Amino acid sequence: MATPSRVRVRAHAKINLTLRVRGIRDDGYHELETVFQSLALHDDVTCALEPGPFRLRCDDAGVPTDERNLIWRAAQRLWEKIGRRGPVRGVDITLAKHIPMQAGLGGGSSDAAAALVALSRLWAVGPRVDLAAVAAEVGADVPYFLTGGTALGLARGDDLYPLPDLRPYQVVLGLPGFGVSTGEAFGWFDRDRDRTGPGRTRAAHASIIPAWPGRQLAVFNELEAPVAAHHPEIGTLRQTLVRCGARAASMTGSGSTVFGLFDAETPARRAARALAAHDVVAIVTRTADRRACSGAASTAAR
Ligand code: C5P
After folding, report:
1. Are 153 and 138 spatial neighbours (Cβ–Cβ below 8 Å)?
2. 275-301 CB burial, b ≥16 within 10 A, e <16
3. Active-site residue, selected from the candidate residues 44, 111, 141, 158
4. pLDDT tens digits, the chain, 302 residues: what are they?
5. E strands along 125-184, which residues?
6. Backbone phi and psi for residue 254, each to the nearest 5 degrees, phi listed first
């Protein structure tokens, strides 16, 4: 098969259906046990072979397009892994941004994973390069986005075990008017734990949902209570979603987004309107299965 000169990959958002913090690791990171779920909501990452210095452009002026962007770091890492020296060059990357930032939806990590998939095709990177290992060096959440779907994440979230695809749900995302940095959320969690003592689960809310044929899942997030203590809007948002008929509602990741799972689109749209009435930006999307997210399915090459 000829090597393409341009590849576009969808970078799907995720939510955390469950998130338990198991302890602190020697490297300072928190040991997690989380169930990731992909959403249909996605960014588009287009990579093209173009002579000259590395270039990253984005249609959203709020997105950094320099070394701070995980796409850049992913490209540099892969460049070095295939034996090239110096700063990465010869690629032009365009990012069409739809996933809100600092929202717990994994947008930056997903963009980086999509760039790895696209660049590995453009540069004809063979199986000798372990893309998952490169992804883990870029960020703890990045390896999950190489496959997506429903998956259990252990360690920093990068020790991954695919689960059967969750039954489909409509998903309403409520975005409060502030972001939460991951480091800050874990810091608040640690301070709470120091007060209450180890071993207590801090997930204040759990909702049981039908998840797989004959199987249920408890949806919860242990980071929610410490984040909501600093941002009470999180609790209000969750209660509004439940009142509007969500099967389950919870904060995702380290926040600030709160998601609600709905059986059908009509109540989901109604819930989104209720959030908008409270000046909360609401996005209606749906869960996406592993096949919809896999690099091969989402790649268009020319
Ligand atoms: O993964 P990321 O670099 O975005 O994480 C930012 C910060 O969040 C880390 O430096 C760390 O303090 C904290 N963190 C953590 N445990 C995790 C993930 C992030 O303590 N599993």
Report:
1. no
2. beeeebebbbbebbbbebbebeebbee
3. 141
4. 678 899 999 999 999 999 999 999 999 899 999 999 999 999 999 999 999 999 999 999 999 999 999 999 999 999 999 999 999 999 999 999 999 998 999 999 999 999 999 999 999 998 889 999 999 999 999 999 999 999 999 999 999 999 999 999 999 999 998 989 899 999 999 998 877 665 555 566 899 999 999 999 999 999 999 999 999 999 999 999 999 999 999 999 999 999 999 999 999 999 999 999 888 999 999 999 999 998 655 565 55
5. 150-154, 159-162, 170-175
6. -95, 15
Assess whether 14 carries a catalytic annotation.
Answer: yes
- Which atom of ligand 1 is the closest one to the Cα of 139? 1
Give the containing element (helix H, strand E) for 236: helix 233-243
User: Measured from the CB, is residue 183 less than 6 Å from ligand 1?
Assistant: yes
Q: How far is CA 231 from CA 90, 185, 236, in A?
A: 44, 11, 10
How deeply is 232 buried, as exposed, middle or buried, from its count of CB atoms within 10 A (0-12, 13-18, 19+)?
Answer: exposed
Name the residue at shortest CA distance from atom 9 of ligand 1. 183
pTM for the model? 0.94
In terms of DSSP H, where are the helices of 123-217? 131-138, 142-147, 182-196
